[in-house]
Write a structure and sequence with these properties.
alpha/beta; single chain; about 40% helix; 9-stranded mixed beta sheet; Purple Acid Phosphatase, chain A, domain 2; about 775 residues
């Protein structure tokens, strides 16, 4: 895929964009002619039947093949029309639109057509020769190779979508790609009326608002908690005696073992409780995927016999009271409110957890108290683990391992010994579901050495014993994303599912492949939720600065404005010496140059904005783009400071309260608004400032969890269950008789979404 065009790569002087379609890889710097031609090709291809799936009951193979064949003529016509301008090589790229288009025809589309077109034609001629009475569609569905051909065409569809996305990005219209990617199947939730309200425990104080990350006091406490929880300072020893204790869920009456996975919870009460409600229901029902791209759900999906919490169980840092109010309370209320006779009744289900970075902040001893040393969790789950890391033995050669990689993404000696003992129990052909606090694709993108060291450890523990790790689960990032390993070394699915209740992070900036710069990729993105077109619209807007978390910023930045005004005043010696209005632009320029005592502060401001623009990875082009956008942001802030100071000099009363109180406060508001606007602009144009752009919005939308099942035959089914919107006022609704669950949400009626799913066949044991 490609990350650039006018919206992605325009931050670089060369406007270089990377393309990855099958084996077609390289850089392209589109000219105006290439952008125009790319848009024409996009319209032609996006409107064809090749973008929709083929099933035994829908779609016609002949129509799909003819549509693909027709694209050869269309491509030739468009390339001829635009001529050599779409084929000229430039120094800043090694691909042109013409090269991409022709290679896609010959290397991606042609092999499928040349294989199946003659075969289908021969079958159609047989119908005409025999005078068969079946219609052409009926005859096609009787074709012995129909299933295989449909599978090839459906596999080709993924490559065609990559090509369509690349064309849209070259044309500078990447958001159009989302219109051809089908949204997840969804179904409304049946409202439940509570006959009896839930009695909250004594001392319940739910966090009704999400964490205000831009509040200076909250930020100071989080910074101090980070220092207290640093493993280097606080130590990193086992919570117990490090004895291997196997956790073994028992199959239910349906012969299946059901598992639930949730991560990044314990923020505001509404999203955390909304997810907890779904996890504690007796069962949930997902709609069938109308596009037939996901496996059909196995009827009702039962509540998990084991609940796995994948990290960051509380925000912004750990304390016993925060765990009690923000993590345990929502799950306690949700479990108490369920009135059905659950197949997994309270007290018989187990739970395990691994710590994420926010569990470490404040000190890991609190996590140990809540999850390791306790006998139960929230009064309804047995706390099954005896360490911060754990091993679950599942039927049919399946295992689940939970790692604690702390803040440095490593396993200390004691934990390595623990899993060395666990690895001795693996048999050839066994398969491990690995739970880690941080996704491996993110480590590969940001911390290559830590990724390589962890990979070597996993190879020694699992792969070298003849077992495999087909499924990796992680949170840390607050969205759903599925990456698959494509380097040919192993077949792996990597799921990021940090949707348990924390603020939403964007998906439009996710890399289509990792690593993104030149070279063969290790991972490719297949699914994300929310869709990029939705993600782009959700970052903090200028209206968001009305949130009270920004009021302290107004004051703090206003103080910097006052300092800048004071430094200028040092030159003048008194306020009255430089108060005459500027009579010309030359006078104004002379005043700016003469304000040299404030220049060091302005230079620091530019440097701060460059540092504050944080790219998502260490790619050289992205780093350069981040510095460029940060510099632009810094210059804009400098202009704001100078403009505010000039306004104070030349407008209004020449009094101390005007110069050092009111005008700086106005400057604080304007600079904060500029900061929010620039962060949003940067986030929409390059893969940077994700957290800055979204954390202050404290969005409760697009929450999700995973429900998994190992059936009696050993097949593992994984379903990503989305919840959007979540409802507002959950605590009040659950503690009020006659309230409707889920409660009303201004964004619309809460629905369950079938985001992603996959079946892993039984292991081949040796």
């Amino acid at each position: 895929m490609l990350d650039g065009g006018r919206e992605g790569a325009a931050m670089w002087e060369a406007k270089v964009t990377e393309v990855a379609i099958g084996q077609i890889r390289g850089l392209v710097s589109p000219s105006d002619a290439e952008r125009t031609a790319a848009f024409e090709l996009f319209v032609e291809l996006a409107s064809r039947t090749t973008t929709t799936p083929l099933t035994p009951d829908t779609g016609v193979i002949r129509e799909s093949l003819d549509s693909l064949y027709g694209f050869f003529g269309i491509t030739r016509g468009i390339l001829r029309e635009h001529g050599c301008d779409v084929a000229k090589s430039r120094n800043d790229g090694n691909l042109t639109l013409a090269a991409i288009a022709l290679r896609v025809l010959n290397e991606v589309i042609r092999p499928c057509i040349t294989r199946w077109h003659p075969e289908l034609t021969s079958w159609e001629e047989q119908r005409a020769a025999d005078g068969h009475g079946a219609t052409s569609i009926e005859w096609e569905r009787q074709w012995p190779h129909a299933t295989e051909c449909r599978a090839d065409l459906n596999a080709l569809r993924a490559q065609v979508r990559n090509y369509i996305d690349s064309l849209a990005r070259i044309a500078g219209t990447p958001s159009l790609t989302d219109l051809i990617v089908p949204p997840p199947a969804s179904g409304p939730l049946t409202p439940v009326v509570l006959s009896e309200p839930v009695a909250p425990p004594s001392g319940a104080q739910p966090r009704t608002q999400m964490v205000r990350w831009f509040h200076p006091v909250e930020g100071f406490h989080s910074m101090m908690a980070h220092r207290r929880g640093d493993p280097v300072r606080a130590g990193r020893s086992p919570a117990g005696d490090n004895t291997l204790h196997l956790i073994e869920p028992t199959p239910g009456d349906d012969g299946c073992v059901w598992l639930d996975y949730v991560s990044d919870l314990g923020d505001g009460i509404d999203p955390t409780l909304a997810v907890a409600w779904q996890l504690t229901r007796d069962s949930i029902e997902l709609p069938d995927d109308p596009h037939h791209e996901l496996p059909a759900p196995r009827g009702d999906l039962r509540r998990g016999q084991l609940l796995v919490m994948g990290g960051d169980q509380v925000y912004p840092y750990a304390s016993r009271e925060k765990y009690r109010q923000q993590t345990e309370l929502p799950y306690l209320l949700a479990a108490q409110a369920q009135t059905s006779d659950s197949a997994v009744s309270p007290g018989t289900a187990a739970m395990v957890a691994i710590p994420g970075n926010h569990d470490w902040y404040g000190g890991i001893s609190t996590f140990d108290e809540v999850f390791v040393h306790a006998d139960e969790f929230a009064g309804h789950w047995n706390a099954a683990q005896t360490e911060r890391w754990w091993v679950v033995r599942l039927p049919h050669g399946w295992w689940m391992w939970g790692l604690d990689t702390a803040l440095d993404n490593t396993l200390e000696a004691a934990q390595a010994d623990y899993f060395t003992e666990a690895s001795a129990m693996l048999a050839p052909g066994d398969r491990v579901i690995l739970c880690s606090p941080v996704p491996l694709w993110q480590l590969r993108q940001k911390r290559e050495r830590e990724y390589a060291a962890l990979r070597q450890t996993l190879h020694r523990l699992v792969i070298a014993r003849g077992a495999t790790i087909p499924l990796f689960l992680a949170g840390d990032s607050h969205f759903f994303a599925h990456y698959r390993r494509v380097d040919g070394v192993a077949t792996e699915d990597h799921i990021t599912a940090g949707g348990g209740g924390a603020f939403l992070q964007p998906t439009h900036n996710l890399p289509e492949q990792v690593p993104y710069e030149r070279g063969a990729p290790d991972f490719k993105l297949t699914t994300r939720w929310p869709r990029p077109v939705d993600s782009r619209s959700l970052a903090t807007s200028l209206g968001g600065i009305r949130d009270r978390q920004f009021r302290w910023l107004f004051v703090i930045i206003g103080a910097v404005h006052a300092l800048f005004g004071a430094l200028i005043t040092v030159r003048a010696g008194s306020l009255g010496d430089v108060t005459d209005p500027a009579e010309s632009a030359t006078d104004a320029a002379r005043w700016v140059v003469g304000a040299w005592p404030g220049w060091p502060l302005l230079l620091l401001l530019v440097a701060a904005m460059v540092v504050a623009t944080v790219p998502n990875s260490g790619e050289s082009q992205l780093q350069q783009g981040a510095k460029k956008f940060g510099f632009i942001h810094g210059i804009a802030q400098v202009g704001m400071f100078v403009a505010v100071a000039a306004f104070g000099r030349w407008v209004g009363p020449q009094e101390w309260w005007w110069h050092f109180l009111l005008v700086p406060l106005i400057g604080g508001v304007l600079s904060t608004a500029l900061f929010v606007a620039m962060v949003r602009w940067t986030n929409r144009h390059i893969r940077a400032d994700d957290t800055l752009a979204f954390s202050s919005s404290h969005l409760t939308r697009y929450k999700h969890f995973l429900r998994m099942c190992i059936d009696p035959e050993g097949t593992l089914s994984v379903y990503a269950v989305g919840l959007d919107p979540v409802g507002a006022g959950w605590y009040e609704a659950l503690t009020t008789a006659g309230a409707v669950i889920p409660p009303f949400d201004p964004a619309g009626a809460p629905k369950l979404h079938y985001v992603w799913g996959k079946r892993f066949p039984p292991a081949t044991r040796t």
